[in-house]
User: What shape does this take?
Amino acid sequence: MRNLDESMKLLRKYVQNENLIKHMLSTMVSMEALAKKFNEDEFLWKTVGLLHDIDYEQTKDDPEKHGIIGKEILLREGYSEIVADAVESHVGHTVRDTKLKKAIYSIDPLTGIIVATALIMPDKKINTVKPKSVKKRLKEKRFAAGANREPIYESSELGLELDEFIEIVLNAMKSISNELGL
Assistant: This one.
């Protein structure tokens, strides 16, 4: 598997939108935090988090292909079947039969909810966001209405309570608040 610098170069080849790149960085650090929690391969999980939306700009008008094209890109670029399968599964195209696949599926939308929560804070800073605020916003259907909440609640399949899951992801994102501009 490639190192993270090579993965970042590949990402920048396919993704120009800086907010999307920030989302992918958020997902990467969140995946790393969960890998640590579960004593899994941190590098593998970080790589999946970083590259999970590599095809988004190509597939934004054809969401049925999102993840599928990403898998094709990654296999063509020499990434493992494990990485490519996890990227494909993050949008629900395949069975989520591993912790890695379940984690990327649940983390992806939660990072967006956390960013949206930070942006309504008076200071617009992630460091002032509390897990209870995120949980409250999750329950508000009109808040970040486009975000699918079902994958977030499926974090229970990882053996985590929702509060703990939110706290892990939020703390991971706080660790890169400067890179996120939040």
